[in-house]
Amino acid sequence: MKNALNRPWLILGAGALVIGGVVLGQNLKPGPSIFGNNSPIQLRPAGLNTGVDISNLKALDSTYSALAEAASQAAVFITTETSTKSDSDVMSQLQGAKSGSGFVYRSDGWIVTNDHVVAGYDKVKVVLADGRELTGKVTRANDPQLDLAVVKVDEKDLPTLGVADSSKVRVGQMAMAIGAPFGLEDTVTIGHVSAIGRPGLIPDATTGQVRAYSGLIQTDASINPGNSGGPLIDVNGDVIGVNSAINSPNGTNAGIGFAIPANVVKVVADELITTGKFDRGLLGINPRDLKPYEKKKLSMSGGAYSLSVQKDSAAGKAGIKEGDIVTAIDNVPIGGEIDLRVAMYRHSPNQSVNVTYVRGGQTKTVTVKLDAPQPEPATRSNGSRTPFGNDPNGFFDRMPRQNDDNGAPSTPSTKPKLGVMVQQVDPTARKQYNLPEDAKGVVVATVNDGSFASKVNILAGDVITEINGKPVATVADLTEAMSGVNWGDQVTIKFVRFKNGGRSSYSVTVPFNQ
Description:
- It is a single chain.
- The chain is of the alpha+beta class.
- The chain folds into 4 domains: 12-70, no CATH class; 73-277, Thrombin, subunit H, CATH 2.40.10.120; 285-369, PDZ domain (Pdz3 Domain), CATH 2.30.42.10; 400-511, PDZ domain (Pdz3 Domain).
- Helices cover 16% and strands 31% of the residues.
- The chain contains 10 helices and 25 strands.
- The chain has a 6-stranded antiparallel barrel with strand order 1-2-3-6-5-4.
- A hairpin with a 7-residue loop joins strand 7 and strand 8.
- Helix 4 (262-275) runs parallel beside helix 7.
- It is globular and about 75 Å long.
- It starts with 11 loop residues before the first helix and ends with a strand.
- The relative contact order is 0.10.
């Protein structure tokens, strides 16, 4: 495999030490005027004699340029403009082309991108860095937890990017994003890793359902619509993540972008390439990382803390309980939430694994036969904006703000929104939210602070069943019911809360005001 990078940037670390003092306290003499002695416009000298040694700064500048030039050779632009739609997919109902980014994962023509870039299309157009335009065949993970897909083009000896161990990514390290924001190919932006381990629930514009992300790498390298699927790389030119979402008040870069970690990318891409499909085992645990004080108190270096365990899940049947800390799967150490999820990605449904966990200071190991996630129902949509914040452009780049579901304040000048993200009540949702078999409607995934839903005490896990006398059986029903609501209208919302094996029904009638 031919790698696009010859790693000419190993001196990067020292180069940043002199940046702060380069232009301070200078007393510069004006250069010769190009319009005569009376013109205030002056040419600056080709080199400034500041008395400061800028050799490290020049080396840093050269390093960034070399890194960008080399890594860009493996980046690609992807568009559905001349592609073939899949009649069986919900995206086939959308009008207009989409575009995004990707990178060459294998030299024999395998390319990694986001699923939301290519969803609904069997073939897409791939533009390589050297200008070649090729037809690529799409293979999708088709899993709401995994916004990843691969595209195969009929070429060999393509320049590639290596894939880093994302468990070693640290806050503060340099990061470079490569892609085609707004269709502007070969765009490079530079920043750093600003946080790690970010979770995210983002509404899919095509279905009105929610994609769940885990362990996202946060960066301030500029990411915009069209960057999706492109690589986020480190100083070695290796991919640490796939750029997928942003947090923004207006849909464009606000300095907070998110990338799917490389360890997830690698296991998903390898299986898609090898088998043409992707499946994963389901343990039935809702995990989180151990907090620093917990590690210190428990004298543990890591582990995945079980926030909840579904009673009828594989873990529940094996005796694993809420509060247990999973430390290994088949003797492979689990450092945190993302390690546990990657372990499930590596194992198939009905496969038996040994789960090691800590309870009350005692280490236990049980054999667990993994379940299979239930398939998501295909929900038709016309791609228009909905009360819970879908993106009308068909992009999936935008992470909702904490206090609003669509990136813009809900005011009397806009259509009212409940301020929730929802998903269809199906077998997967029933397991995730511990809902009984007879639960019907849409289940609330998140409630935005300060939203109308929060003011009437709707909580995550509640099932909305009716709005203004109109039954809500599907996400589309909720969209339709809310479309007729205006500011100041009396609104009656019925929802059910399932807790500790019981259920409580609520009916709230209030004016729809801020």
